[in-house]
TrEMBL record:
Gene Ontology terms: cellular component: cytoplasm; nucleus
Source lineage: Eukaryota, Fungi, Dikarya, Basidiomycota, Agaricomycotina
Designated name of the protein: mRNA 3'-end-processing protein RNA14
Domain Suppressor of forked: 75-353
SUPFAM superfamilies in UniProt: TPR-like
Ranges of biased composition (kind: Polar residues): 63-72
Record organism: Lentinus brumalis
Length: 446
């Protein structure tokens, strides 16, 4: 056998690059075999750098998701009011925060929550409604709120005025007068006897006068309707009743001066009695409510009652309320038994005023008794002085107002929200001076 020459390629050593490639392939196979053995044995596989960075990203995202977002001031205050709902100042602040945010859902939640605690507060109802009257697409929601506020309880005269303004603004078409007429009938069936109903009566009379007629008979019917409205309004103890009386005199004299004397003389005594009773009513009510707070921007003023402490001022306020309700039940207008609906409506109006005072004081007020009207054939109550004729009221029948539906039946919320008055408050209280009223009530008369 011959020796191979060194130049024979088969006998030459492999190049360095080939060696390194072989070593790398051998190492790779060893690593893969080791990984397979680890998987088969159930041991955790060490992650690759790419897998490790992906896992770290997922962990950081999970931490971000589980970290609670900081609550806004509105959310913190709303949570506090769920725990302690009877806090008038906090509710007013929550309203400010909701309206400043412009979030309609926050506004709805705020007002709905406030009306659960103060369900018969007209200033809150009106402020809530105003958020839905500028956009026609929100009218349906506004009308849902109107139905809720007007039909659930005895509506306030402030809410009825607001309702009539809304109806007159949006009602168009050939049936507009018929719709508006029904709305006036509804409003007057609830608030015709209220001392603040002058604006409703004046607008209603102007509405009747503006009706168009085509025949003499229609014109006579219109004049009769205006006369009936005037005759009922001038016998109600309300603000500006004297001005209504002067307008009525001008109306009758403009039609026929001969018949005017008869109509005016028949109502003269009842009208003077209404003016006298209005002055007495003002004396009773002037100390029962604090002054109205100023409005804030476009929003109307909101006044919420504070829970009483039953100190001397609160006891004096309670005594004043008892005096007023007792006076209202004494039938100061000498309404006859045949006009019992008017008696009941005045009682409803009187007790509805209780919704505006610090709520739990109503619990200590006397319960309503049946309307005390003049029996047929009786010219006066035994407690009334002789020589006074009973008042004759021209009023339409109102089947919606019955003694069993007086507002005191809807006052269960008072027992939930405020403490019971102590026995000393429930006992009869003697008349006290105005100086002993709570401080927020005194400066109204300074």
């Amino acid at each position: 056998m011959t020796e191979s020459s060194p130049s024979d390629p088969m006998l030459q050593d492999p190049p360095e690059s080939a060696k390194s490639d072989g070593d790398q392939n051998h190492l790779t196979e060893n690593i893969l075999n080791a990984l397979r053995q680890l998987q088969q044995s159930g041991s955790p596989v060490p992650p690759t750098p790419t897998q490790q960075s992906s896992q770290e990203t997922q962990v950081s995202l999970t931490k971000q998701e589980t970290t609670p977002q900081p609550q806004s001031e509105w959310e913190r205050l709303r949570a506090q009011l769920r725990e302690k709902p009877v806090d008038a100042d906090s509710w007013l602040k929550l309203v400010d925060l909701a309206e400043e945010s412009g979030d309609i859902e926050k506004i709805k939640d705020t007002y709905e929550g406030m009306l659960e605690i103060y369900p018969n507060t007209p200033s809150v109802q009106i402020a809530y409604l105003q958020h839905f009257l500028d956009d026609p697409t929100q009218y349906n929601y506004a009308e849902t709120l109107f139905k809720k506020f007007l039909l659930r309880t005895t509506p306030s005269v402030e809410l009825l005025k607001f309702y009539l303004t809304y109806i007159r603004r949006i009602t168009k078409g050939p049936n507009a007068r018929e719709v508006i007429q029904k709305c006036y009938d509804f409003a007057l069936s609830h608030a015709s006897q209220d001392k603040d109903s002058y604006d409703i009566w004046q607008d209603y009379i102007n509405f009747l006068k503006a009706g168009e007629t085509k025949t003499t008979w229609e014109e006579q019917q219109k004049m009769d309707a205006v006369r009936r409205a005037y005759q009922q309004a001038v016998q109600i103890p309300m603000e500006n009743v004297k001005r209504l009386w002067e307008d009525y005199q001008d109306f009758e004299n403009g039609l026929n001066k001969i018949t005017a004397k008869k109509f005016i003389s028949d109502l003269q005594e009842s009208h003077m009695q209404a003016r006298t009773v209005y002055n007495q009513l003002q004396d009773h009510l002037s100390v029962l409510f604090p002054p109205t707070p100023p409005p804030k921007g476009k929003r109307p003023a909101i006044w919420l009652p504070r829970p009483p402490t039953f100190n001397s001022g609160d006891k004096t306020l309670l005594a004043r309320w008892r005096q007023y309700l007792k006076w209202e039940e004494s039938n100061p207008l000498l309404i006859e038994e045949s006009n019992k609906n008017t008696c009941v409506q005045r009682r409803v109006s009187g007790y509805s005023e209780c919704y505006k005072l610090p709520a739990p004081l109503v619990q200590a007020a006397p319960r309503s008794s049946p309307p005390r009207c003049l029996p047929p054939g009786r010219s006066r109550h035994p407690s009334e002085p002789a020589g006074r004729r009973p008042r004759r009221v021209l009023s339409r029948k109102n089947p919606h107002l019955r003694a069993s539906q007086l507002p005191l039946e809807n006052m269960a919320f008072l027992h939930r929200t405020c403490p019971q008055p102590p026995p000393s408050v429930r006992s009869p209280t003697h008349r006290r001076n105005r100086d002993e009223l709570p401080a927020e009530y005194q400066h109204r008369h300074s």
